[in-house]
Amino acid sequence: MFKKMKKLWQAIRQLSGDDAYERYLKHYAAYHAERGDAVNATPFLSREEFFKQWQDGKWKGIKRCC
Amino acid sequence: MNKNLKIIIWFAIALLGAFALSAIALNRGESINALWLITAAICIYAIAYRFYAAWIATKVLVIDETRATPAERLNNGRDYMPTNRWIVFGHHFAAIAGPGPLVGPTLAAQFGYLPGTLWILIGAVLGGAVQDMVTLFFSTRRNGRSLGQMARDEIGVIGGTAALIGTFMIMIILIAVLGLVVVNAMKHSPWATSTVAATIPIAMIVGIYMRNIRPGRVLEASAIGVVLLLFSVLAGGWIDHSETLRTLFDHEGLPLAYAIIVYGFAAAVLPVWLLLAPRDYLSTFMKLGTVLLLAIAIVILRPDIHMPALTQFTDGTGPIFGGKLFPFVFITIACGAISGFHALIASGTTPKLLANERDIRMIGYGAMLLESFVAIMAMIAATVLEPGIFFAINSPAGVVGKEAADAVAKISSWGYSVTVEQMNQLASDMGESSLFARTGGAPSLAVGMASIFGSAFGKHLLALWYHFAIMFEAIFILTTLDAGTRVGRFMLQDMLGNFNKKLGETSYMPSVIFTSALVVAGWGYFLYIGVIDPNGGVNILWPLFGIANQMLAAIALCVATGILVKSGKFKYAWVTGLPLAWLVTITTTAAYQKIFSDDIRVGFFAAANDLSNKLASGVLPADKAAVAPQLIFNQHLDAYLTMFFVAVLWVVLVDMMLICGRYLKGKSVLPLSEVPHIETQLEAAWVRD
Q1: Which residues of B92-107 are buried (b: 16+ CB within 10 A; e: fewer)?
Q2: Which residue range(s) make up the domain with B296?
Q3: Is A27 close to B276, i.e. CB distance below 8 A?
Q4: Looking at CA atoms only, how far is residue A56 from chain B in angstroms?
Q5: Which residues contact B7 (CB under 8 A, 6 or more apart)?
Q6: CA torsion, points B109, B115, B120, B121, in degrees to nearest 10?
């Protein structure tokens, strides 16, 4: 039961974009590890900066319908 | 599970569905329970999803689980990203489900509950869901290209341009009609107006919170916003009870329309994070929550449907909009049965998130079924009202008369009894001064929802439920208005960029202001005309929107049919070809009638001529004579617009058929633009489940 609640909470966070920054960090780490970059060879974005870009990117194009 | 058991279960579902469907279709006279509609809908959706959609996925589209999706190949951690299918489903559904499926069925209920219900069910499983699913599939196979780009790549430049112009025009009409729905809901209602107005600063608070105070904490900010929204519904009631405050928010239609126009312009020019994005969060949460609540309330309450299966208005004399059952029920209910707009969502954002092609059936087909279910609930909310009350709320003053006594006499003469006392009692229960001639569908839906919620969760709160429902409709109508104006602006900038590079830059402020003003002027014009029209405007604008939306759906199905034929699947081309043929039939018939009909309530030219004759002979009262020239001009404009829509549709259709003909004769055609097969590397289980 607890596990299911946790899963649901994670789904809600992911749907709303609440965890977008955490996912970005994960993707960032995985991507640079794969390429064999030194840690922090290219700096990652701050939470604030990332959120700005993420939000602006999200609203280019048709996102809502009738 | 045991195979035989499965067969028995599906057989039972089919039987139950058939039984429920025949119960609602054959019922005459006595009232029928809403649960039958729900049962029939769920059984039909289940059968269609399990068998038809699965067959399309495996035999027609030939879904390939081993193929890497664009999300995997082009993963950039942002727009392209393999995502859990339930998450994609949520995003996709939130994007496709707007106010359309709530308004359309409410208006179409004038024909009775049966025609609209059947079209919502059949249209969705054979048309709308198929369109969404195949578009999603073809776009996924083309790196998430948009419908317009696919039309250009597969059919040619003409098809691509037509899709682009069509989208732009729909946007203009759609925003105008939605704006009109909100204006009609707020007219002379200080409670509704103040609540809707409060959503703007609330959205800004939420926006600032998640941008500056606690960056990226979307859920915290949304929770604060939802609490504030609910409070604003309560506070609206206090304002309504205060003699001084209520005059501040008590307005005629026209000033409200101007306010919406100014608001639309501001929303398109202001940065997204301040207004549009936070409003979208609030509206999505409200939408999902309210739809869920409505479903629960209907199941708890099991209300009886009071509207007859068919009314006498199938002959085209309906008060809400003129025109016969065929083709106008199919035009009025676009979203919920088939909506061309969905093809734009299914070919943009969604394919870039798919982790595996297997998910296409659930997301493309499944999400549309859910939207169709929302439309069924709207139909229930409209038809549980006493028909007399339903018609009193939805009939424009131009049809039934301005005075309450005239209106009830007229409506009662149709056989739907209603009294002035009844309407006054209802209005005072709902906390409104009057509910006569509140056209547009939102007030009657709100009354229906309030009576369902009220009976299920507490009757003394009726006025609160009513204004909650109005706020819920208004907030996501305004979201569509913001987002649509912005998209229109981007499209316009994109087009103008071909002539002047500077105008094409989305961050160049003079261009932003110029193009936003153009888009707002476009829909603002139709909104203005809709408000000054004594027949309510919805009766003109909604069919125009329906025709435009079905035209876009037909273009999407043209692209899909063309691709199917070019992929050597001519024998399966009927899967998209059949709904295409039906859409072409209904849009062309409806357009023909809107242009050439002699009935002044249907034909644009007939109405224009009638009005100019009356103007010339001086029989019009002064207030009507003053606006008559504008109405005449508008009727002409609408007629030409309709011609334009049909012409675009036929150009794309003929273009597609020529291409198919060339292909079948073995001549050269534009090659398929599908990207080559690359084996998936994702151990997909972790992302998908």
Answers
A1: bbbbbbbbbbbbbbbb
A2: 3-188+251-675
A3: no
A4: 7
A5: none
A6: 140
| Interatomic CA distance for residues B39 and B24, integer angstroms | 10
pLDDT in tens, B461-471: 899 999 999 99
B window 467-486, beta carbon within 8 A of A: 479-480, 483-484, 486
Contacts of B345 in chain A (CB under 8 A): 62-63, 65
Of B87, B99, B277, the CB nearest to A14: B87
What are the contacts of B201-204 at 24+ separation with CB within 8 A?
A: B202/B228, B202/B229, B202/B232, B202/B282, B203/B275, B203/B278, B203/B279, B203/B282, B204/B274, B204/B275, B204/B278
- Rounded to two decimals, the pTM is 0.94
Amino acid at B251: H
Q: Are B440 and B538 in contact (CB under 8 A)?
A: yes
For residue B327, whether the previous peptide bond is cis, meaning omega lies within 30 degrees of 0, is: yes
CATH number of the domain enclosing B449? 1.20.1740.10
**Cβ pair B154, B563 in contact under 8 A:** yes
pLDDT in tens, B569-606: 999 999 999 999 999 999 999 999 999 999 999 999 99
Q: Scanning the structure block, which residue is given the tokens 């198929």?
A: B130
B281 touches chain A (CB under 8 A): yes
Q: Kindly calculate the radius of gyration of chain B based on its CA atoms and give it in whole angstroms.
A: 25
CB neighbourhood size of B255 (10 A) = 12
State whether A11 and B99 contact (CB < 8 Å): no
The verdict on residue B224 lying in a domain is no
Q: Looking at chain A, which residue has its C-alpha nearest residue B209?
A: A48
- CA distance linking residue B235 with residue B222, whole number of Å: 19
